[in-house]
Amino acid sequence: MLKLLTTAFAMFIFSQLFAQNTGGHTSVDNGYNLDFEKIEPGVALPSLWSRFNEAKGYRCEAVTDVQHRGNQSVVVERISEAADPFASVVNVIPAKYEGKEIEFKAWLKYQDVQYGMGLLIRIDDANAQTIEFRSMANQKITGTKDWAQYSIKAKIPAGAQTIYVATILSGRGKMWIDDAEVLIDGKDIGQAKINPGYNPNPPKYGSNILDGHKVYLKDAEIYYETYGSGEPLLLLHGNSQSIRAFSYQIGELSKKYKVIAVDSRGQGKSTDATTGPLTYDKFADDMKQLMDTLRIKKANILGWSDGGNTGLIMAVKYPEHVNKLAIMGANLFPGTEAVSDTTLKQVKEGLAHLQTLNDANSKMEVRLFNMLLSEPHLTFDEIKTIKAPTLVMAGEHDVILDSHTRAIAAAIPNAKLVIFTGASHYAPVEEPLWFNRTVLQFLDR
To answer: Residues in domain AB hydrolase-1 (predicted)?
Structure first.
């Protein structure tokens, strides 16, 4: 229904802009140089530490005249009135450890800080998309203070690939950092268990050169990627999304099925040469042509949001091509009988803003948002004709009304209904293990 909503904007803002302890701590040797003592000759920062941004107008380097313990610390200081808004020094850690929570602790000292300073944790997935972010920006730590230990914690979400632990200074002032620690579920990272399933070089879903292909239609180029082997399983993403939306599903599903993940017309790497209104019927026709081109007579379909709408239309319009159908957060028609008032209001507000922009991407977004407000046009009588085994899913707090989801499941003969407790429209990301298990159990039966 909507773009995959994250706190990315807040993350960006916070990244641009701690419990005192009088005792010392001897960290296990974890190889991440958290005591800042290892440094290569002629290099300003200690080994494994670097500037997070270019940070013009700031000094970021190891110093020996001030330290909490040992021979040196790292100083971050603004030295020019024409400086960038902030400076940050970071250590990059692979998310290869088993655990649910990470804690970053460090001793900090600061002087004449204008806007704020502190610690931050950022966690990215395999596509370099930020999926978790915590900072101390809201504490607005300013002024001057001697050494004290500060701490920040963050959840380690499913799909974590890279962890950034950093310190940040915003505006005028000076700060020092020393004797840092990284803890996984309360244990020093040097003692944390390694996750045997961690892949240091995972595929880049949605931009995988080796597994990416295109089907050329008369008015569009449809990009898709294939993974695994077995029965074909077509993955259809939501509005304004791409193959990346299924980053937490492709790996698991491709262990048993030949996954064909598709960028819908005009989204991701797929193109669209038309200029008129977009429809889910057109999307369904595209998938029919893609299957015909690939000589796939019948496929399982997993559709999320707009992809679920397309899947329903395919099951009605091209029943001979649909083996099993799993839909997440789908609707039969637009309006308040199916979609929450709040969501429709957000779409209309987003559309009003997009209509003020003239770039090609915004123009496509206008067409996609208009489709949300005017499509689809399915009826309950139509979906009663669906013969494919069907799994109907939604989050407990989905943008699609619970009554509408349940009515869809009740109308499709012998459909199975699953509501993900505590989850929203984005259950595939919020509860990937539960979601994947549910889909596989349905497809395997």
So the answer is: 232-346
